[in-house]
Fold each of these.
Amino acid sequence: MAAPTCKMVARPLRKFLTCISETYLRNNVHRRLSLTVPLSSVLEAKKTEINAVSPWTLHGAVCLQRLPKISQERSPFEEQFAELMSRMELERSLLSEHELRLLEDVERMSRKQSDDYDSDDECLVDQDIITAQDMEDAWEQKFHRFHPAPRHKEPADMDRSSVDRCLGDSLVLLAKQQVGSEDLWLLPQLQWNAGETLRRTAERALASLPGADFKAAFLGNTPCGVFKYKFPKATRTESSVGAKVFFFKALLSSHSPSPTKKGAFVWVKKSELPNYLKPRYLKQVNRFVMNI
């Protein structure tokens, strides 16, 4: 009875060990095969699959802003508040050295006019004394000779292709680009190329402006907004429905004066954007353009 019992126990155990060995070999073979496929090939295959499936063309655009160069003019309320603060500071402040010297000069002049004045008490009798009032008169004459530069320059402010217009306001760069059969004012944009990031596309769009040499500091690698539109029905196909534009914010750091193509781009204030952009496009742009 011992031999049949051993065979009955050994048969399931042999089958169990065989299943374990086959599973181990199958997993090892799969791992070796997966490691032999290059990662770049997998990414290219996925990218090709996405491009083949997506009917939307991708674009990268840059929202380039020039920050104010000078302070803005005060409103009437700000003028009243500044005058109030100046009056309070004057009433609560201590006398400065110049004001103390003015009082000393007045006291010295009053002593000279008195009958019991003794010149031996003055230590600077033989020297030319420059009083505080003399210094104030010299400062007054220098102040009248000073003429500040005008805050508004009519020729420069009217030239919207100049980056030096409206120095007290923040300006946004717009470029004239062809979309289908129309010439539209847009934020500078270009079509995305496979293998590059969307930020790199936006940088390329800024560098491609004709005759412009703008240096900008991009504010991060993440888009600040997106705009989607469909192509006209005459040019729309199943594989090409429309375009998606991803916007990146940047600040103008420097520029060099160079001959530019007239009418290629303009610098406008936020309040002037409705004169150039279409309503749907303007609605998206207004979400991330700050009027600093």
Amino acid sequence: MFSLPDLNQSQQLPVDLEPEFEGTIQNISSPTGREAILTCSVKNLGRYKVGWLRASDQTVLALQGRVVTHNSRISVVHEDFRTWRLRIRQLRESDRGCYMCQINASPMKKQIGCIDVQVPPDIINEESSADIAVQEGEDATIVCKAVGHPTPRVTWKREDGEYMLLRKPQSRELIRVEAYNGTHLHLPKLERRQMGAYLCIASNDVPPAVSKRVSLSVHFAPSVRPTSQLLGAPLGSDVQLECTVEASPMPVSYWLKGGRVLPNSFAGAANGNYEQPGLSRPEMLLDGPKYGITEDRHGFRTNMRLVVRSFSPADVGTYHCVSTNSLGRADGTMRLYEIKIHPGGVQTTDDQLNIIGGLAEAARGRGNSATGSLHPTRTHHLLPMVLLLIVSLSLGTIRTVISASSDSSSHARTGNR
């Protein structure tokens, strides 16, 4: 006899549940050389299987717990029957992309997680500037190209820590800035003050940041400025003469003595031509017992010093500080004279008259210099000295005349008696 099935028994038959993902796959960011792990959690897997694929080209990397790719850096870890981890060691830039966790159900189920491989910055030397040299007044652009992921930021700074001097757009004014951001640093109409070493620093928050040094040389002909046009000293003392030189490239500097300017010959001496009719041949001075010669260099500036030891009458005369480089030549002239101290009064001598003449000449701006003339601001301070010296000598002369007149009157009165 046919009997109906037991409904209670049919309700107890096992029913296959569909597999489901638990949560989502968290994206990973990691620098090169590190490792990245993507986690895929599945429940109710049952008779189905889990596989890992590269999303871009559907390359199968692993099936269940077995790796099927030949990449030894990839492994799969299966935990508590529901967690599947894709592990990539020693990350490379080529590992950047998205990966798929797939369940072979019908229809197929999948989840995607992505790995962002970060690359520290690197400067491309072939596309970046090397050390450059330009003439003063010309334009220059220094370039720094860098790669990395994320895209690096490029910042320019001075190596010495000083402020950078950059020209305002459409302006001749230079402004001070601590840093400049950008791959191209434009420097129009360069000035000597902008010379120096610049650092290009590339960073993208992935250590380490990298830098490149670019040396910028601004070339110009020498200029020479003596600290004084006239110097006086008593016999037996040590006298120091100084000149400030600005030049680039580095100049050759030296001291000359002589080349005395005679009438109608001033212009030639101002141009540095000492060997012509009317001028005596100058003597080049060397460091030794008589002369002490030193130089202090600070960037494109040089301080020249000449010490004349045990000043004697033979040392009276004209001294020239001369500087020359590949772009030109310049010199500065100083006149060294003897200060005579006479007890009981001041006597007017030919030398003292020469001193007055020299001071007056310098005050009028006709003294020799690197540029052939003195700037008014450099000679203005000589005028009080000229007046004081003239008054002093005049008073001495008046005292001498009065004394002589008194003596003559006394003799006349004695004779009358």
Amino acid sequence: MEKFSGLISSECSVHARFLLCSAFAPLCSEQVSGSVSACRALCDTVSEDCKDQLKLLPATVALDCGAFPLRAVRRLCMRPPNASELEPEPQPPPRWPFRDPELREHGCPPAHAMSPTGECWPACGQHARYTQPAKRTAEVWMNTLAWLSLLSTSFALLTFCAEPARYRYPERPMVWMAACHAVVATAYVIRSWLGAKAVSCAGGALAVDGLASPACVAFFSLTYYFTLAADAWFANACVAWYLTAASEWSTEALERAAAYLHAAAWGWAGAWTAAALALRRVAADELTGTCGVARAAAGALVGVPRGALLLAAVALAAGACPGIVRVRRALDSRGARRVGRLAVRAAAGGALYLLLAAAATVAKLLEARIAESQSEVPPLGALEAGPAEGSGGAWGGLPVCLGLACGVAAGAWAWSRKSGAVWRAALCPPRKAPCCAPPLLRPHHPYYKRPLHVSRV
């Protein structure tokens, strides 16, 4: 209070003492939760009456009226005892910080439309938060990675179909992981054919509540479910390697336990997908034109399930390393080299997938945090310069692109010389000699001599 002593002694406002006392010694009562200070309207009045005296205060001292409660939004505050009862109530702030001429008839700012929930959200086909070049760039990257993911996973699945016996446990979970990412990539390819409006729009606005649009629900269900299922199968691959190396399980033993791995992977993804749909945490994104987890629930529905799976995979992989070293020492040189090559190949593919999946998860969480810290609408005057691309725009399409890059890495385990040999044998089969006679008895063989008599025996 000593810093404001000059303000009080000047008697520039009869309410100055009441305002300062309510700020430094607010009302506290057992019947009220929290402290109660003066109303913001009183602070604005004192600031206007004492603006000359406020300029004389030290630079470190300021009167911030924004910290006082506002009666118009039904927040409890105090009025001075000598205030007039006929004092008009302050007008409530507008829903959007725009000037009145900028508001449309439906009460939404430009490039926004009224959603079925009664809120103003970016209109379909308009550029509210992102510019057209930013959307085009995100579209190109998304479509390119979707096709690369689809080609990579398709190659892996077709290689498995050509030689199923080659991919037994503990490598079999990689096949299911590739299949899951193939479904995700297919969903993005279909979305590129249908267009952003067909997937992300509900009426004239983005699908704020994703359940209002069947296409949005279908796209979210496919991508979210199979992304979590792919992460679960990645964790199952680490489980299989751990049981093989550390507990010395055979391939047959793992195949007998495969039903439990299937139940864990598909059940985990199904439970989280059902929770997201039941809580209605599905929303469309303007930049990518897709539907995903709402940003407010990204930590609970993306960070928790994916983070838990990735951490479990890291722990299991670390536990399998000593077992692999022990197995290599127990084998001869040829077997040790074979196990070493297999382990290095699995470790390289697993590390690549782990880094991309972790980066996608972190990018999604950062995007949600940046979006929460920023205002839902551009600041006043930003409409004159066009849509604003803040720091959130740099993160907007990154989680989607990293997720599609995981699909490319999911099929990388099939990129080997042995797979090339399988495809050469399938596409260019060698000519086979007639099987009716041994080689030395064929007419065109250099040592062939026609026998005089050949008995039936």
